[in-house]
Design goal:
Elements lengths: L1 H26 L3 E8 L5 E4 L3 E3 L13 H16 L5 E7 L2 H17 L4 E4 L14
Parallel strand pairs: 2-5
Antiparallel strand pairs: 1-2, 1-3, 1-4
Length: 135
């Protein structure tokens, strides 16, 4: 009888841990993003600041879901800003802001050292959030 009670208590404790873990996984929304956009035909490279996007999510493999939407937002914004088409945009992401800021600093450093490329900061009004059309 005592073994059965211990087994039931152990099973109950395990169930509570599994439930709380599943809930924390669901609640763990939001990802930090920054983007880089440029063209193979000119020397200007656009870089955004690190932004927290509350509705961004990583899949079970750690990949950014709907990353094409975020890179297309940056691509469209930059093309409207400079009036030229043919831009390519890449989005970098991480759950930790500090890790992503290190990556951004490294990328900016490489572009600043370049004698060929010109680094432009994307205006602060640009946001990675999806519009209602994109949802």
């Amino acid at each position: 009888v005592m073994k059965n009670i211990k087994a039931i208590v152990l099973l109950f404790a395990f169930s509570l841990c599994a439930i709380s873990f599943a809930q924390s996984k669901k609640e763990a929304k939001g990802v930090y993003l920054f983007g880089v956009a440029g063209s193979f035909t000119d020397s200007i490279v656009y870089v955004t600041d690190v932004q927290f996007v509350a509705d961004a999510q990583l899949d079970n493999k750690g990949l950014l879901m709907e990353r094409a939407v975020y890179s297309n937002r940056l691509k469209s914004f930059v093309e409207q800003e400079d009036g030229l088409s043919g831009r390519t945009a890449a989005v970098f992401y991480h759950k930790k802001k500090s890790s992503l800021e290190k990556k951004l600093k490294k990328i900016k450093g490489k572009y600043r050292k370049s004698k060929v490329l010109i680094l432009h900061e994307v205006p602060a009004e640009f946001k990675f959030e999806k519009t209602e059309k994109e949802e």
